[in-house]
Amino acid sequence: MNIKKKPSPNFSKKTRSKTKIKYVIFHYTGMQSEIESLKRLRNIKTKVSCHYHINRKGEISQLVKENRVAWHAGKSRWKDLKNLNESSIGIELENKGHRFGYQNFPNLQIKSLIKLCKRLKKKYNFKKENFLGHSDIAPMRKIDPGEKFPWNKLSKYKIGSWYKTNKRNYNLNDKSLQSLFFKNIYKIGYRYFFQNIRNTKDKKIIKVFQQRYCPNKITGKIDQKLLKISHFLAYKNKKA
Predict the structure, then answer these.
(1) Considering the entire predicted model, what is its pTM?
(2) Is 92 marked active-site?
(3) Nearest by Cα to 219 from 210, 227, 228
(4) Catalytic residue among 92, 94, 129, 147, which?
């Protein structure tokens, strides 16, 4: 695999062991051009970086060595972990993002991403569930990689979780529906909400989940399909 070296000064100086690396986090750059993205990721003043950047032609660049902590996740939580910079590898995909004109991710770009992820998966023995989006770990402030990111396609290569549908319907009122949904996604790993107390900010959590698993229906409302998906992902190794 051809990987260019484009070093960034933005990383923690202390090295980390291979066993400390548990996750891969996907981002989009959200900048108007590749030049601007790389400039920002390599500018010491921004204090932002990633381990790998993949442009729209599928060219991969390494900005930070894997045994160093890059500054890509920020304030974040997943399961019992906080501040996932310490335990993850960050991959930035060149895309203008929602602010400047959100784009589809080109086939060449995704093809390179799959190759890189296969390599990382083998090297660190990652489970497929350990490939996450920035919005998964920071749903209150991030929406990348967004609804156009091809999670379903990646799941066919055992990169990221996906679901299987079933015909079961849950005969529940709205309150019970919400309670069960949030119980399920807490089990999956999502945080930044209370399991038994609803809040107006919960809509952001629901939308982030929909962006990933129901990208054609981002309403911020829980329905039967969304509940089924959450239940499958929470209990996929058991009979739900």
Answers:
(1) 0.95
(2) yes
(3) 210
(4) 92
